[in-house]
Sequence to fold (433 residues):
Amino acid sequence: MISAAAHLTVQGIGTVPLTYTESGTGRPVLLLHGGAGPFSVAGFAALMSDAEFRVIVPAHPGFDGTPRPAELASIAELAAVYAGLLRELDLTDVCVIGNSIGGWIAVELALAESSAADRRVSSVVLVDAAGLQLDSAPVPDFFSLPLDQVAELSYFDPAAFRIDPAALPPERAAAMAANRAALQAYAGTAMADPSLKDRLPAVALPTLIVWGAADRMIPVEHGRAYADAIPGARLRLLDHAGHLPQLETPDQLLAVVREFIAAGRLGPAERAGTPVSVVPPGGGETALDGPVRLRILEDGSTTAHRLGVAEITIAPHTAGPPQHRHGRHDEGFYVIAGTATFTVGEESYAAPAGTLVIIPPGAPHTFANSSDERVILLNTFTPDLYVQYFRDLRDMASSSSPPTVARIMDVMARYATEPATAYAAEPATALPD
Fold:
């Protein structure tokens, strides 16, 4: 790891001194810390470096004893500083990862880069990001909380990270006080921008939202709001993590980040023309493997998240999921083999091979195989939102905590889907002409 400094010129502010560390080689990553300071992402930066990423970790001016020009006093201005840093270092194809207010900075940077003629950022990962004002899920007043209460709200396992202020060395206590002052200067006491939510649809970069399921500092409702507002964004919840997953579950965070970056990565040959995906027979990614087998054929990485495609194979006499509704995507089913039964509200239909069924948002539906032969369906999602649902189910099934109805419903809710079990199925009939 090397330490470096830059002096960046920001319009309306002037010269901004900036210190940062750099480690590793490979795909460039700009890693933005939250209010806890650079140390809170240092370990994760080392993990990413070992995973063959070039990781740049700036200290927000004012943190860790660094100077902050008085004119530099907002999250958007910090984003402008980092836009300048990317150009100063002549970086392209950058993945920006930000935690807490670092996530808020990443959002502002994504908004600016989405319309930039010389775009340097290619993807964004928001980790328990601050910035939104949600009356239904208020954020606690961080600046009025003692450190013990901050730990209670921030961690899945607070005891492992609790700090005794009386035991802190004087220099560490002074640095923490300075960090709090800088945080308040940038984010205000509310740590939110009421205008941000309405501006999020302008983000035109692939975006992954990662949230610690135990975060009580910035509740998971904020993650869902980010996912709902940013086109094509996906939300991943991490068990056994709170507000700082990079400290509590760093390996788990690294895995989902690497998966996200790999899915959106194009090689030089692909950039020269239109990328083409060819999935051979038996290829793809198996997400479910049982009486209902689901194979992901297109996860959206080739289609800029406009379309996802899966193959579903259903064993004879196998029930499907309870009736449910999708809020944010259309779903299509083309019957390749066998005869499926589709139930839509109170009506059920027999769908033989060659049948196409399109389910718009809001329509209750389910499917099953009540026949003696297997059924094969081609399943489409527009946009690709629901593909990640099946990956989450797979991860849940392989975890130490067994799936429950409540946990499955929680996963469905991440992707704007809810049960619609009030409907009773009728005996199957032929699909109308």
